[in-house]
Amino acid sequence: MIGPKEKQPRVHVPLVTPNIYKEEDVVEYNKKMLALLESLPECAGDEQAGELLERICRDSVTIARTVKPPAKKNKFYHDGWSPIFFVLRAQLICMINIRRGLCGFKHVHWQKADRTRHITDLINRWRAVVDRFTFESENKNLR
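Now predict its structure.
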C-alpha cells in the first residue's frame, strides 16, 4: 500500500537579474544602488563584510527587478494559441454562423427583413474579439 505523499523540500530558486540597457533605467538603478550603499553600516570585520556583500548582491537583484519588472505574459496566449489564431478563429465562427443563417441549419433560418441585422450583430462580435488585441504595424517592420 502506498503511504501518504511526502512533502518535497522547497528548492531555492535564485532571482533572475533583468537586462537593463535603457539609459533612464541605468540612471535609476545607479541612484537606488547608491542609496543602498550609503544606508549600509560601517564594516567591523571579515564576518560582517561577508554579510554586507551578500546583502548588496541580493538587494542589487531586487533593485534591478523594481527598475525593470519581469515582462508580463500575454493573457491571450493559451496552449499554443496566439492572438492571431484567436482572431482567425473568431472570423471563421462569424462566417460559419452567417452561412448557417442564410442557408438554414438546425432550424436557424433568417427572414429577409432580419438578415442585415443578424449579419451586423455577428460582425460586431467578431470585431469585438479583434479589438482586444494589438498588432504590429507594417510600417514599423519596414524601417
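Helices lie at 23-39, 46-67, 83-103, 115-131, 138-142.
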